[in-house]
TrEMBL record:
Domain of life: Bacteria
Keyword Repeat: no
Pfam families for the chain: CheW, Response_reg
PROSITE patterns noted in UniProt: CHEW, RESPONSE_REGULATORY
Biological source species: Photobacterium sanctipauli
Residue positions where 4-aspartylphosphate is found in the record: 225
Record-given protein name: Chemotaxis protein CheV
GO BP terms in the entry: chemotaxis; phosphorelay signal transduction system
Alphabetized UniProt keyword annotations: Phosphoprotein
InterPro entries membership: Chemotax_regulator_CheV (IPR024181), CheW-like_dom_sf (IPR036061), CheW-lke_dom (IPR002545), CheY-like_superfamily (IPR011006), Sig_transdc_resp-reg_receiver (IPR001789)
Amino acid sequence: MKNATNQSQGMLLFKLTALQSFAIGTLKVKEIVPYTPLTAIPHSHHTVLGAANLRGDTLPVIDMAKAVGYPPLTKDELKDCYIIITDCRRMLVGFLVRGINKITECNWHNIDAPPSALGSNVFVTGVTTVEDKLVQLLDVELILSKIFPDAPDSLHPVLTDVQREILRPLKILLVDDSAVARRQLSQALDSISIPYFIATNGRDALEMLKHAAEANDPFDILVSDIEMPGLDGYELAFEVQNSSILNHAYIILHTSLSSEISVSQAHQVGAHEALTKFEANELIHAMLRGAERKNGAEVVA
């Protein structure tokens, strides 16, 4: 399946070291600007170099190389660096990188899971090749979660006993390629004793949905990330909505992208809701709306 939603998603290639290429999806990128002098932020994380004022927005700027474990930028390098401004996890953040390579079209089906040889480099969610060179796709959510930890109350939903009992019988599938996002989702549902299943990519999720439906035990709620290698969240939602045995599921696309465009595209492919990560109460109440829809359909049936 190829549609307009994933045609617009390319990769921004950039340098953190002299030899290795890295990338993030272009949907996360708002702007790229040359280095500009920064204002110090007292008591900030050791990877935050300072704050930049760009077009009226004041945003923290992170040394991305240092954040993922590579040598930090030196003062002499700064003049040749670029700031990648991202709109992610409800905040504008700048990542300072050693160089910008290019924006390239990307077939996200060709992105593979990180090889075990990468070892402890947990910030990589996938690898691919561009012009015969290895490119590592970075987990921006994980980077930001370590620098700007979520407030505890954003991770633990509050609901009544009645609401909990409405959710408990539902079969829920959580899909995300980011380890930090899966941990957040798990913590949120574990804290209120709601059972669930987890998939780490869209392809596995689709197989789980099909097997459950064929066993006459279909999933009721599907919560999926949008940006995933292989089968992304848009494509997964499209496949589910266009299958007579799968479209029973209430689809919630749950993304670190803060753009209104991503919400509009989510609805175009058949998702019932699109939420920006991570606010547990918003997610749980979306699930409750899914439960209401399911219960209403059962009454009509």
